[in-house]
What does this fold into?
Amino acid sequence: DLSAAVDLYGKAIAAVPEFPEAELQRANALLSLSRTEEAEKGFRRALELRPEWTLALASLGSVLVGKGQFAEAENLLTQAVALADANTLAYSALPELRLRTNATPADLRELLTRIEGLTSKAKPTASIWAARGALENAVGDQKAARTSVDRALEIEPKNQFALAAKANAALDEGDTAAAES
It folds into this structure.
């Protein structure tokens, strides 16, 4: 019950105003409820309270990518991976940022290399596989992209980024029927 969670985190924050964990969890619940503006405020407050918290940096960066605020998102996400090189949340958002800002092929390949390292470790997330697939598609390796996206969808069949990557790969191959399914 996400609405109840938002209320309970709000009560916790009222009782302990400097409670970054509650701010972050409340913001996550708000984001799940599609209350993006409120979630952004919560992630910002969590960062006020704990400025180098990589989870909050990546969460806010991800929200800002979705809002098209690329410059600030770039700063937050690069700071998150600089502080924690295995930050899967940041690495899940960076490919979308790079693709939406028309990064150079060299930048895409460099990011792909980093993400390949994450997928070689134990239990990569669907989001990391989807990010890898999107980058592989962008650098022209459609076969690898299909494999990565399929792995993402095996883990999480409704992963939106993986489904979008699969559709984009199909469109790049001229298969409009596959893209529509």
